[in-house]
Design goal:
The protein is of the alpha/beta class. It is built from ten helices and 14 strands.
């Protein structure tokens, strides 16, 4: 198994903010320097107008994330997002248009196109950064979702963090800024092209965490142990190697079944935790592992259930091991449960998802 993405949620791309004046506000007193003499404020010294716009755009994005409450659990991330320049990690990206994708590029000879690229880089939206045969394989996540995940990771000073899925390098840069020590951050991805690109972006922004090319599901044993592990791609289960490379009490956050599970590691063979309340749609990891199960037929179920996100989350969590009609009956009897009522337990050779109680009757095995 491997990883290919900063992450991807399935919100539509938004081309215009609608409130252009918000871009022109002042930068709220945020400092665009790392504090080590590295200027991270703009596209480049030859384009002062875009550099100024980048600062205003970043400040506007921070205000938008702030208003969403995404980092309420750990407000220190506000300064981090206000400092790290997202546009340096997306020198080009793709937006969906009729019949395919349109490429937006920071080095376009057209100044209007360059400004459009920059404004898009600071929208609170995911950005498609790598396509293969017309299919999305890597992206930069929606910043407010990244903020929520990082806040829920509950990073503390001195923590050693492993990121699964290097993507553009932006998430690793945020972690490096928060920890103040690049060497505390390790990012791993399966494809050499992605890791090399991430290193290039990180260096351009003045950050140098360790970026490793390898199978993310196997972790990075030579950099262990880790206090925190965060995955930015969807997984079918919890890799046991991650637990073995974690210290007791480590926190692991990973996307599973359109949700975000947060587990506390007890030891190399035991971990447990619940899902957060937010949905999350990520690019799946690639490179091996159990093939994704085909979606079950929902024929005969009421339309409201077929279209309900929480019911579809339950179906994704059971991975086709429960008949949809049985799942619908359970869902109704349980009162249409929110995501926070579900959890995951890893205990020795067993791993399972559950509703309300890890030892209760409503549990579903996860792949090995």
């Amino acid at each position: 198994m491997g990883a290919h993405a900063d992450g991807e949620d399935d919100r539509d791309d938004r081309d215009d903010r609608g409130d252009r004046g918000d871009w022109d506000d002042q930068n709220d007193g945020t400092d665009d320097d790392r504090g080590d003499g590295t200027d991270t404020g703009g596209p480049g010294p030859g384009d002062p107008d875009l550099a100024a716009l980048a600062g205003r755009a970043r400040a506007a994005l921070v205000r938008e994330i702030d208003a969403s409450g995404a980092w309420a659990a750990d407000p220190v991330w506000r300064e981090v997002f206000a400092t790290v320049p997202r546009h340096l990690f997306v020198p080009y990206y793709y937006v969906a248009v009729a019949g395919g994708y349109e490429r937006r590029w920071g080095e376009s000879p057209d100044p209007v196109a360059r400004e459009r690229w920059l404004r898009g880089a600071y929208q609170d939206a995911p950005l498609a950064t790598r396509l293969r045969d017309g299919e999305l394989v890597s992206s930069s996540s929606q910043p407010s979702l990244m903020a929520r995940m990082l806040a829920e990771l509950r990073v503390t000073d001195g923590d050693r963090v492993l990121e699964i899925g290097a993507g553009t390098g932006y998430n690793a840069a945020l972690l490096a800024r928060r920890l103040g020590d690049d060497d505390l951050v390790t990012s791993v991805d399966l494809e050499p092209e992605i890791t090399e690109t991430a290193r290039t972006h990180l260096a351009a922004a003045g950050y140098r965490p360790v970026v490793v090319t390898g199978d993310g599901a196997r972790g990075v044993p030579e950099r262990a142990p880790f206090d925190r592990i965060i995955a930015t791609c969807e997984l079918p289960a919890v890799p046991r190697a991650w637990l073995a490379q974690s210290v007791p009490g480590a926190r692991v956050l990973l996307p599973i079944a359109t949700g975000l599970a947060v587990l506390t590691v007890r030891d190399a063979a035991h971990a447990e935790g619940r899902f957060l309340d937010t949905p999350a749609y990520f690019v799946p990891l690639r490179g091996g592992g159990e093939a994704e199960a085909p979606p079950p037929s929902l024929a005969g179920l009421p339309a409201h259930a077929r279209e309900d996100e929480l019911f579809r989350f339950l179906l994704a969590l059971t991975r086709g091991r429960t008949d949809p009609r049985e799942a619908y009956g359970l869902w109704r009897r349980a009162g249409r449960p929110e995501r926070e009522r579900y959890g995951i337990t890893v205990r020795g050779e067993r791993a399972w998802a559950w509703l309300d109680d890890p030892e209760g009757p409503n549990a579903w095995p996860l792949p090995d």
